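Hi team, as promised in this morning's meeting, here are the two structures we talked about. I've kept the exact order from the run log so nobody has to guess. The first one is mostly here for context; it's the second one we should focus on when we meet again. Sequence first, then the predicted structure tokens.
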Amino acid sequence: MKFRSVVKEHWPQGAWFARWSKSEQTVHVLHGSGVIVRADRLFEGVWDGDFAAGRFVEATVFTGSGIRLQADSVELIPSLDFQNACVFVNLDSSDDEQCASNSLLCWLTQTGNALDPTWGDYYIDLVRVFSVGIVDELPTLRLKDGARVGVVALAGWSISAQGGERMPSAEVDWFEPNFASYRAFIKGVMARIQENATGPDRPKPLGVKTTLSTGYDSVAVSVLARELGVTEAITILGREDARELGKRLGLKLRARHRSRSLLLPNRVVHECFAMPIGQNRPLAIFDRELTDSVLFSGQGGDITWGMKRWFEDDRLRAPNFHAMVLISQLEHRLRVGYSLVAVGVIGNRRADRVMAITTSPEMAAFQEGERGRPIPRRIGVEAGIPAELFGQTKTAGAIAAPEVFSGLWNRSFKKFLRSVPDPTATAYRREDYPNFYASPYRWTMHWAHEQMKDRYRD
């Protein structure tokens, strides 16, 4: 099989849409300027391996999306083990014509489908996609007129003349259940991602930055990034101030107040709500710094480094809401052209070993009760960061209700709500999904898609 591709200069640079027939040998692709297309694969993002080799499918960490062509199949690859990129595809893998995209809005636009105007629970549906983990049957989202779309998440999906099937996860040389081995593993993955991003073979080398706050996780991530020579960081002010930490780490720090997220242009706010709900909107105030970059982030540290085990097994099944902030940045990420590497999630398929390290005697001096995170605490303290400067409760980076729904765009959304028959209707129980239960703001995804309806039109 082969690609026939057309660059769409007005599209977000990381977006792609593929259409193919099983009776032909050509995959037709429309894509933004940042998507790399080769003879047998296309991709956007970074991974912990040599860029020139292009072997993102076998990587320990891949944060992006892509396609790999085999002789008789098309393999759709989301972010591997991460929740920041999916691939949307026909529900029925037996159909002769298949369509796939790394943007739900793009897939809907190009296929002529639409969100179900009577269904307000897409937020909960997406939480469920990630909480069920790596599965053997595609999870789906309902669409208008009874249609559905398949969601490829966390592991690849192969489509051939015989139908579709989940691809096995890559074999990984994991860490031993001790702190030194785990620390070296994380740092090694970060180093290989850095080499991938900045290598001379990339058409456009990416800058590498880190986030910094007064919490546990971003401090640990910034310590490891600094050891790798990363010198630039961003920090969000408001209810916390990490500038002193930045000085101690020798980072060139760009700081902005979180209140600026309330003044973002509507077109940027639409991006943050296109995959609900815009909890990570403060990142959008750093468009200039994030453009064409890789961002090492502490996001996800709470679900891997905390005293509570979230993942039930190596298929990443999780009983609770987690890491939706990663997927909520999808449309913003594709336009600006950055890769978000949630360092705390690296190695999460061996959450059993991480928990063994967390609760081990060697970590006892860094344990601080149920809310503590011994691993990032130790990384920071051993790097010379005074314990009292980090590990604090922080609220600047992510926005929670009701503030998440504040801003200049709110009048437009309230106007849109008048077209919704019952904005509080829901098919789920409060006990199962308490976040935003029966809230009218679950409809922000419909509103954002309506406002962005021309983004992927030809």
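And here is the second protein, the one for discussion:
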Amino acid sequence: MTSPFSALIIGASRGIGLGIVRQLSMQGWQVVATCRGAVPADSPADTQWLKLDINQQDERIALKERLLSQQFDLIFINAGVYGPAHQDVAQVNDDEIVELFMTNTFSPVRCAAALIPLVKPQTGVMALMTSELGSLNENDAATYPLYAASKAALNMLTRGLRDTTAQREVTLLSVHPGWVQTDMGGANATLTVEQSCSGIVSQVLAWRGKGGHHFIDYAGNVLRW
């Protein structure tokens, strides 16, 4: 049965992003997804794919202009990178820092800010993928500090969108996917992509229409900032 819901997933070429696309497609959602390069070979056949490098302003503008006539029940900004493998602030160079924070922090929020008008008022959800590692409370050991810092900054800048989403009666979510078996999470992670993404989609449906800004995980737990 076809669902009446529609979604735009930013950064969906693999891993959790592609997993969310698959979950939504299985549930009958109409899905538009973006990738920087080739469309994934195992993408659901009914997904509409558009090209986007989230760090390129002209591409963000072009994407919005192309989608201006549409309204989405969900826009999920998923794009992100781990950063340098060493995660050492004493070793990282300036170019690596800029790339990390542009991809994980500034570009996702700029993209979200531009696309908020495309989220359905009252019932729509704007979600950004973050991590519990970005919380000063949840990550007291400063695990993966460079990556965590980029996500902490993302959380703060996302909070800056709250007034705009409130005016449009859109629910704003910062979502932690759990420790997932992806290229970033590794084979020892506790969750499969399917488990994480199934939970994420369930949470999107659970939080529809509630308003406000919430920091949650795939299982619905409310996390401390």
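Starting points for discussion:
The chain has six helices and seven strands.
The longest helix spans residues 94-115.
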